[in-house]
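Here is my example:
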Amino acid sequence: MDRNQIVKFKNVCFAYDGAPVLDDVSFTIQERTFISIVGPNAGGKTTLLKLMLGLLKPSRGTIEIFGQNPEKARPRIGYMPQYVQFDPNFPVSVLDVVLMGRLGHGVRFGPYRKADKEIALEALHKLEMDKARHRPFMALSGGQRQRVLIARALTAEPELLLLDEPTSNVDMAVETELFELLNTMSETITVVVVSHDLGFVSQYVQSVVCVNRRVMMHPTTAVTGEVISALYGADVRMVRHDHGV
């Protein structure tokens, strides 16, 4: 069955202060797929997500998200950044954090509506965190916080979910649970995840976007040792974290 192409990059270049980060990038992402973005540090992975969001503009080339420029498409995108700063002394609850995802969508000024709270609670339920909705966010474990932040991204009711290192600083069991959940979500929305653990994510994603200034997109089955060596510029062993072996 053919699926719509919801992300289109064509001959995109981007530089920070004249230093090239992405060069002549062209690829597409289809709807309702699970994609991983991989590559070395400072290779351009986070920059790619910010270009999709319209937070950065290319110096050359074109980007279309849902057939629009990224700024106009932003309300249809959920985003979890790599680093989220919270004051540990600020008394914010789990539900408060998740409701932040409704800003700019259901509410602009004044208190949250009943509908916003229902959407937030449904997102927490999907992430199995609804029972913790009144707990202080900073009292949660690392894995629980990651679930809450994904729930916050889901409250935008996105058709495209962009997650930058969502499993950083969590153990293997938590990482497995989160990726299995994201894999299920990809049946109804498009999920794009930045990850360093290629061997792990290859069990779940359909395609891998390899980023190191230039971009190559491969089906997961085509990611060989030669591809990894070319990506990282050295021999890198891809370890599969298969379970039950």
